[in-house]
Amino acid sequence: MGKSGYLDWAYLVVAISITIIIFGVITTNIQEKHILEEIIEHDKEVDLIHDRIEIYKDILIGTSGLFAASEKVTMYELDAYMESQKINERVPGIQGLGYVEYVQGQEKYDELVLEMKEYGFDDYKIKPEGIREEYFPVKYLHPNDFRNQRAMGYDVFSEENRASAVQNAIKTRDISVTKKIILVQETETDIQNGFLMLMPVFSKEDNSKIMGLVYGVFRINDLMEGTLSDRILDKSHVVLYDNGRDEVFYDSRDDHKITYLENSKYEKSINVGGQTWTFMIYDDGIPYNNDEVILSIFIIVLGAALSVTVFFVIRMIGKNTIEMEINSQKIKFDAMISHELKTPLVPIKGYVEMLTEPNLVGQINEKQKTILDKILKNINHLETLLEKILKVQRHEMGRHSWKMSSVMLSELM
Questions:
Q1: Is the pTM of this model over 0.70?
Q2: What is the separation of C-alpha 42 from the centre of its chain, rounded to a whole number of angstroms?
Q3: How many whole angstroms separate alpha carbon 22 and alpha carbon 363?
Q4: Among candidate residues 39, 107, 36, 4, the one with its CA nearest the CA of residue 267
Q5: Among the residues of 337-402, which ranges form H helices?
Q6: Minimal CA–CA distance to 9: which of 178, 289, 336, 17?
Q7: How many other β-carbons are positioned within 10 Å of the β-carbon of residue 116?
Q8: SS3 label, residue 237
Q9: What is the CA radius of gyration of the chain?
């Protein structure tokens, strides 16, 4: 293989490499475009959760205003207020909205139990049982379904996470949210994680005296799946962590198995009533559309076709160059035979013929004449050989001229 042969193969390797690089760059740009689109979409989904939480906060603040503006809010008044708000229709995802009352001392304890019996809750009692300095039992909870009935009378101050959120709400006089808990509303089936959102209510007469807390009850699966779009729940793996990355609060997949491309992991944290919620959204792959797939295939096919085509063109040019070089050498060879070999034979032949003529140079003996005949014969043979070589060369170079004439077939026989 000559030098030109190596060059055309080198071009083919370089051209295909460039095609692969261009394909990689375009594919990377498509991936980055989709990743950016995914980030924007995931931001919107997380914002949906944040906005929904803000709506619930506004509802709690409005409900706390109802208690703050009244001497006493009855269960019927609260139910009527809740019905007018149409909470489950406007912002689904909440298990219940109610009120926990601050109870201190046995007298207040007995008054609460008696009041609840007047509402028809004959079995009402503060749970868990036991004598404590203060209680925050559930007094009202809307709607009065079978799950919420299980929570009636439950002392939210009896459990550490709930008590911490109660204390924080009273201290900050603002919305406070518990860490991940299991609600007392849960039964033996379809158990979900949950949380409480609490807003303190203070006395009209003494603004430093706590009266109770308006609170919302949330089952996290109901909240997330009632707020997030079906698209993200179907195509992505959504994991919510409570308290930074310490606790898995919600997982959109039952198997809890996380599989994803490294560049398709999304993370964002939001503050919810003093708690840090961290969203991790994993995507299984880049969703290429048909146009992008066609473009990628087109680039590969076009690049390969152009590379191979130019490769053969270069090979053809190289081949023609070599042939031209060979022809050039043949022409030089032709000239060399004509001028360097044939030309010297002419005078030699002439002198030999002169020596055989007695009238020109005098008489020669038979031996001399025999030698000169042999020389002349060899000269004629060499001329014939050189002429044949030149004819073959002219024929190969297409420079042979043919002379057409009529002949008798009998002469060829």
A1: no
A2: 14
A3: 92
A4: 39
A5: 343-355, 358-361, 366-396
A6: 17
A7: 21
A8: strand
A9: 52
